[in-house]
Write a structure and sequence with these properties.
With 393 residues, the protein is an alpha/beta fold. The protein has helices at 17-23, 25-28, 39-59, 72-86, 102-113, 131-137, 160-169, 189-192, 230-233, 241-279, 306-315, 335-339, 344-347, 361-380, 383-391, and strands at 5-6, 66-69, 93-97, 117-121, 142-146, 173-177, 196-200, 211-215, 283-286, 296-301, 318-319, 350-354. The strands form 3 sheets. The chain has a 7-stranded mixed sheet, with helices on both faces. The chain starts with a strand and ends with a helix.
Amino acid sequence: MEKMIYLDNAATTRTAPEVVEAMLPYFTENYGNPSSVYRFAAKNKCGVDRQREAIAEILGANANEIYFTAGGSESDNWAVKAAAEAYREKGNHIITTKIEHHAILHTAEYLEKQGYDVTYLDVDEDGLVDTDELEKAIRPETILISVMFANNEIGTVQPIKEIGRIAKEHGILFHTDAVQAFGQIPIQVDGLGIDMLSASGHKLNGPKGIGFLYIRKGVKIRSFIHGGAQERRRRAGTENVPGIIGLGTAAKRAARTMEERAERESALRDYLISRVMAEIPHTKLNGHATKRLPNNANFSFRFVEGEALLLNLDMKGICASSGSACTSGSLDPSHVLLAIGLPHEIAHGSLRLTLGEDTVKEEIDYVVDALKEIVKRLREMSPLYEDFIRKNP
């Protein structure tokens, strides 16, 4: 088999063997519908309840505040749309940022068409929200603040505790998209003032098609999917029992290994960053130097087209991305990179490398060596680079 180095763990992760093992019986043996009343199905209901309790414990929440969904995008849609609808009598103003995942941005755009007013906060060159600007944006009719915990492209971790404090002082709901952060860094919802939180299984070595939304008790939020009485009448549809088992198993596994994994991945990430910045000229590191996810490195290479870079890396057996997997088919530059102030021509030359628990130093060395060769070759083909060199001998 040809060499493959996988450095796109922000897009999705390998499902861990122990997660698959935990899920398998719920496909072929314990296949009962957990909403049924007989004993055969009750075993599945107990399994679902155990995973709900495990996830709640990781977040410092109560089990009845965890609602299973089909993933992060559904959780984001539910949190923003249903909260906006439920609190419409109080106001119609929502605050978010320009660097959110499209599950938030497109939902906000949809709500604008329904008569809601949305403020999209700027971020600084590192991708950080200015909490003073956030507070200034609050109005009497503000009903929701939605700021992602950590950015999926550049890895910057936001000042969530301060945002939570501001939201609480003003009596405003605070939602955070924690799809990239849950399982990577510690999160305690009470200490951070979080009212709603979205997460997804496949970002933490769990299965795809399963996630959850944490909704603090007392938050007035309506059903998102109507039908049966599942998820305490808030999210209809027969429970994805194998997925829920996998999500809970992956979450417990991530919590158990988090400290050691973060230390190891941070060291490898910093080694990757130091080599790239030292050995490939005209390169910019995107995102905050220290306030970033342990496994994330995002670079912009001047005079290089991102798509060509990815194709050449793929020929070397390296899996990477130019940003969010959800927009990888787009030729437009990343909205996140534009928001942090990069011009189009530099934003187009971006590369996101996200490490996983299996990544080793030898792979990082191989990737950097390949990058040096590829970037050099692509620049030699660029008339812009040729012009730059001529003007800057």
